[in-house]
Write a structure and sequence with these properties.
The chain is mainly β. Helix content is 6%, strand content 40%. It is built from two helices and 24 strands. It has helices at 2-18, 22-25, and strands at residues 35-40, 51-55, 60-64, 80-83, 88-91, 105-111, 114-120, 134-138, 143-146, 160-168, 171-179, 183-191, 201-203, 217-220, 223-233, 236-247, 252-255, 268-271, 276-282, 290-297, 302-306, 317-320, 328-331, 345-350. The strands form six sheets. A four-stranded antiparallel β-sheet has the order 1-24-23-22, with no helix packed on it. Strand 11 and strand 12 (183-191) form a beta hairpin. The radius of gyration is 21 Å and the shape is globular.
Length: 362
């Protein structure tokens, strides 16, 4: 009897997969118990200050650059690739040409008819200088290229790290930055990969209302949002709650409701469930780093909370798969001490459970 019952359940589940029920067809609500942070395979080494990016072309997550300690020479020049399907990491053969691979920003753009990961700027562990390099990574061919014709003009001094970045209409926008051990900057730059070599960067007329670095930045709809970020006061990097909206079409920046807690040195990602922006933990000034995930709703200019991260940390690599159910990855970073580096890799996933009681299994 039980054998026939289990066979019936199997048939029912197969039918459910082919013809989803009303319950299974519902959008997964990430704010409810359906949305949780789970522990996935850790990065093979501790890692911090890498740029995280999801690549839609193969569905994999990449940690670009970063380092294994704050000691000179610990920089990671090979991209780290996480495959969510196999829950495994791979160190790629491609390599950056120098050690200035920490604190980069970037995104996925279309260039020469192909999707590529572009990264901008960066510094080496323990260094007080920064590169202006603009580089592209092709996951399909595992090749890294330097765009020698188009260095980032925002680092003309050789000491400025880019502050935050987001992609809009296949252009990468870079906001603010940190003039190392001097102060933050307020510029906005656009990298348009469709332009001819040597003319891909342009400085926007708009500027940040206050200089900021390490800015959690993400796009929602036709706007880019800057939610928190860092200031530099009395030789110390400090978290802020400054929150801004940038209109890349009109080149206009305006203030929005400040994030409820000061934070920086983290990422903001788009939640496609409702087009809100999630700011993931981060911050360095007590009580930061935090596990708190703050949610900004552009439609109402209000803030709320999402499920907190498993571990309080900052300077981890993170990104989101922008299609539902919107998996978010957060890999590495510093723990609450600010000196201990982490290898842990958490994934936020939203899942609508199948209730087997509906099929007679109890």
């Amino acid at each position: 009897m039980r054998k026939f019952l289990l066979m019936g359940v199997a048939v029912s589940l197969a039918m459910l997969a082919a013809f989803p029920s009303t319950a299974s067809a519902q959008a997964c609500n990430p704010y409810s118990a359906q949305g949780t942070w789970g522990v996935k395979t850790a990065v093979p080494t501790v890692i911090t200050r890498a740029w995280g990016v999801f690549f839609p072309g193969n569905g994999n997550f990449y940690a670009m650059g970063g380092r294994t300690s704050d000691t000179a020479g610990s920089d990671l020049v090979n991209p780290r690739e996480y495959n969510p399907t196999t829950n495994t990491w791979a160190t790629k053969a491609a390599a950056y040409p120098n050690l200035q691979v920490c604190n980069m920003v970037g995104g996925v753009v279309t260039m020469g008819g192909a999707s590529v990961i572009v990264t901008v700027g960066g510094s080496a562990a323990g260094a007080t200088t920064a590169t202006a390099d603009t580089r592209t990574y092709h996951p399909a061919t595992d090749t890294l290229n330097l765009l020698a014709s188009d260095p980032w003009p925002g680092n003309a001094s050789g000491t400025i790290l880019p502050g935050g970045a987001a992609v809009f209409n296949s252009s990468l926008y870079v906001f603010g930055g940190f003039n190392i051990n001097v102060g933050m900057v307020n510029t906005i730059w656009q990298f348009n990969p469709a332009n001819a070599a040597g003319s891909r960067w342009s400085q926007k007329t708009a500027t940040l209302t206050l200089p900021r670095g390490y800015i959690p930045t993400a796009r929602s709809g036709n706007f880019i949002y800057l939610l928190g970020g860092s200031d530099f006061v009395a030789a110390a990097v400090l978290d802020t709650n400054q929150s801004l909206r940038y209109d890349p079409t009109a080149d206009v920046i305006s203030a929005i409701t400040p994030i409820p807690r000061a934070t920086g040195e983290t990422r903001a990602v788009l939640q496609p469930f409702d087009n809100t922006l999630w700011v993931l933990g981060g911050g360095r000034v007590a009580p930061n780093p935090s596990t708190q995930v703050d949610v900004y709703n552009p439609a109402t200019n209000t803030w709320s909370l999402a499920p907190p991260m498993n571990t309080a940390r900052r300077n981890f690599s993170a990104d989101v798969d922008p299609t539902l159910p919107a998996r978010i990855w957060a890999a590495g970073g510093y723990d609450t001490s600010g000196t201990v580096l982490l290898a842990l890799n958490d994934q936020f996933t939203c899942t609508v459970p199948v209730d087997l009681i509906d099929f007679g299994v109890e």
